[in-house]
Amino acid sequence: VKVEPVTMQPVPVSDNYVATIKSRRSATIQPQVSGNLTQIFVHSGDRVKSGQRLMEIDPRQQQAIVAQQQATEQQALAVYQYNQKDIVRQRSLFSSGITSKQAFQQAEQTRNTSKATYESDVAARKSAQQQLAYFHIVAPFDGIVGDVPVHIGDYVSPTTMLTTVDDNTQLEAYIYVPADRASQVRVGLPVEITTGDGTPITQAKVYFVSPQVDNQLQAILVKAKIATKPGVLRNDQLVRAVVTWTSAPAPTVPVLAVTRIGGQQFVYVAENQNGHYIAVQKTVEMGSTVGNSYEVKSGLQAGDK
User: Fold this and answer.
1) Which residues, 6 or more positions from 51, have their beta carbon under 8 angstroms from its beta carbon?
2) Is residue 285 a contact partner of residue 264, using CB atoms and an 8 Å limit?
3) For residues 282 and 228, what is the distance between their CA atoms, to the nearest angstrom?
4) In degrees rounded to 5, what are phi and psi of residue 35?
5) Exposure on the CB side of residue 174, measured as CA atoms within 13 A
6) Res 95: pLDDT
7) What is the full DSSP assignment across the chain?
8) Which residue in 17, 123, 247, 289 has the most C-beta neighbors within 10 A?
9) Is the dihedral of CA 269, 273, 277, 279 positive or negative?
């Protein structure tokens, strides 16, 4: 029978919390103008590129406004160009003494007014064209389209949620740590992200600790950046986060040396009796697992076989 001594190994002191996965780039798409939807170019779950068109709101009314502004601008330009030429004539006549200074000043005033009117119309036309761009809904960054609750023909306004775009390649875990751990929580603490049944997903480190305590939860928000392959985790997914506070040496035994009978944990200890080793069953209390070993909380000491 193989015999092994109880050894001391660093055992992490950790706590298990429920964490929420959040995308560092997640946008709720809402229009900046009102109107009827005429086109929907994407479906839920589609992967889109930054600037890709998602939807279109009927732009005909705004296009008419742009056309009207362009016509007004051209009219103002014609008046301004005429007054530019007229001021040259008036200056020549004033220099020759044919017209009075008052007439020349009136011509200058007319030219300046027409210039201001033209510049105002140019600004109005540019504003109308910028407003026209808002009728084309585009993706703000690369990501995946979420639910699309609207349909072609629906009337939408700036308060209407059209869809969402999430970038699931840049994720972080939101962990709420009880306030009584305030003196221990710090940037750099190791965090293991696991599934609900304890299957490891990835390792991370705390990079943000909120300076405030959530008044309702009496907990501190802690964030850890997540690095996984696309599709492993999603925005708003619930996972478990194991936060390791410290590591301390503790006696450990191999997992295979522990037996369970009636809910109790036992190991067989080799005791020397008159020169012969006898296997004696002892009740023990085990803690967390460390690799292929159990932490021993009570029942054994370092050096026992």
Assistant:
1) 138, 139
2) no
3) 44
4) 160, -175
5) 12
6) 81
7) ------EEEEEEEEEEEEEEEEESSEEEE--SS-EEEEEE---TT-EE-TT-EEEEE--HHHHHHHHHHHHHHHHHHHHHHHHHHHHHHHHHHHHTTSS-HHHHHHHHHHHHHHHHHHHHHHHHHHHHHHHHHTTEEE-SSSEEE------TT-EE-TT---EEEE-TTSEEEEEEEEGGGTTT--TT-EEEEE-TT--EEEEEEEEEEEEEEETTTTEEEEEEEE---TTSS-TT-EEEEEEEEEEEEEEEEEGGG-EEETTEEEEEEEEEETTEEEEEEEEEEEEEEETTEEEEEES--TT--
8) 17
9) negative
- pLDDT tens per residue across span 208-253: 999 999 888 899 999 999 887 777 888 888 999 999 888 888 888 8
Tokens of 187: 């940037």
pLDDT digits (tens, 9 = 90+) for 169-187: 889 999 999 999 888 899 9
Average pLDDT over all residues of the chain: 89
Measure CA of the first residue to CA of the last residue in the chain; give whole Å: 12
Question: For position 167, what pLDDT does the model report?
Answer: 85
Report yes or no on whether pTM surpasses 0.85: no
> Directed axis angle between helix 60-95 and helix 101-133, to 10°?
160
Cα separation, 296 vs 5, in Å, equals 13
Amino acid at 115: K
Residue with tokens 């008419």: 64
> What is the token pair recorded at 225?
């950046």
φ and ψ at 195, to 5 degrees? -75, 180
Q: Token digits for 52? A: 């890709």
